[in-house]
Amino acid sequence: MRQIKLGGLLVAMLFLAACGSTPSWDGYSPVEASNLQALGLSPSEANRYREMGFTSDTIKRWYDAGITDRKTVTAWHDAGFHAEEAGQWNKARFDLKDAQSWQRESFTAMEAEDWRDKGFSLKEADKLRKRGLTADS
């Protein structure tokens, strides 16, 4: 009987030690924690987003835009793109660097996709568009 009590005590101590080292949802309201969990985030990943100033609503916008990898979200966000805008460029199959180049010349993601898919480089598209032409001209 004494062995069972010691074994139970040992299991309880190990459980408590493990719980103490597991990241928790401390510092989040129950609603926010629930929203973050619904997005599939762990407490540690949620904390990384919080350090960027993101809430569950912000993260959901990125996820809804089709960008769910935190490193990708961070790169596009740090480059000045909003979730919806980044999602449009991503959907049009532009990487961040190319999206920045086309956007710098005032192309939307849809316009850039059209020009590129018709075989035009950014330089060619910009030159032709300045002359009043379209990708279909």
Structure, described:
There is one protein chain. This protein is mostly helical and 137 residues long. It has a domain at 80-137. Helix content is 67%, strand content 0%. The chain is built from 9 helices and no strands. The protein has helices spanning 2-21, 30-38, 43-51, 56-64, 70-78, 83-91, 96-104, 109-117, 122-130. The protein is elongated and about 85 Å long. Residues 9-18 have low confidence and may be disordered.
Q: What is the N-to-C succession of helices and strands?
A: HHHHHHHHH
Structural class: mainly alpha
Rg, Å, rounded: 24 Å
Mean pLDDT: 89
The number of distinct helices, counting runs of at least 4 residues, comes to 9
Shape from CA axes?
A: elongated
Tally of DSSP β-strands: 0
Residue fraction in strands: under 5%
Low-confidence stretches: 9-18
What is the first-to-last residue Cα distance?
89 Å
**Could you give a short account of the major beta sheet?**
none
Tell me roughly what share of residues is in helical segments.
Answer: 55-70%
Kindly list the characteristics that best describe this protein.
single chain; 137 residues; 9 helices
Question: Helix and strand layout, with pairings?
Answer:
Elements: H1 2-21, H2 30-38, H3 43-51, H4 56-64, H5 70-78, H6 83-91, H7 96-104, H8 109-117, H9 122-130
Can you describe this structure in just a few lines?
This protein has 137 residues and is mostly helical. The chain has a domain at 80-137.
